[in-house]
Design brief:
Protein name: Lipoprotein
Structural class: mainly alpha
Number of strands: 0
Keywords: Signal
Radius of gyration: 35 Å
Distance between the termini: 101 Å
Strand content: under 5%
Largest sheet: none
Organism: Pseudoalteromonas haloplanktis (Alteromonas haloplanktis)
Number of helices: 4
Length: 101
């Protein structure tokens, strides 16, 4: 019985000993990762203001598009613009077009 217990404990002891080497490797991996990531972090820091400005511009453009959409009568497309549209993108007939038929 003692022999079986010793045989079962040996693999656990070996596994425990091999795990003690892991932190040294993981620290070197961490340093490598930090060296790899550092240029990207610097680039991010340099571009933060530009990204924030673009985000603000995108919000402003979205508001302008919403305002223009609210003011635009989509049914009334001028004739010169209708001729420029490809046949697949021709607008649906308007109420006035249907009344003419």
């Amino acid at each position: 019985m003692k022999l079986r217990l010793i045989i079962l404990l040996i693999p656990f002891a070996l596994a425990g000993c091999s795990n003690q080497l892991m932190p040294a490797d993981s620290q070197s991996d961490k340093l490598v990762r930090e060296k790899d990531i550092k240029p990207y972090l610097e680039q991010w820091d340099n571009n933060k203001e530009q990204i924030a400005r673009l985000s603000t511009m995108e919000e402003d453009l979205s508001l302008l598009i919403q305002a223009l959409s609210a003011q635009t009568d989509i049914d009334a497309i001028p004739e010169p613009l209708k001729r420029c549209l490809p046949s697949k993108l021709q607008p649906l007939p308007t109420k006035t077009d249907l009344a003419k038929v």
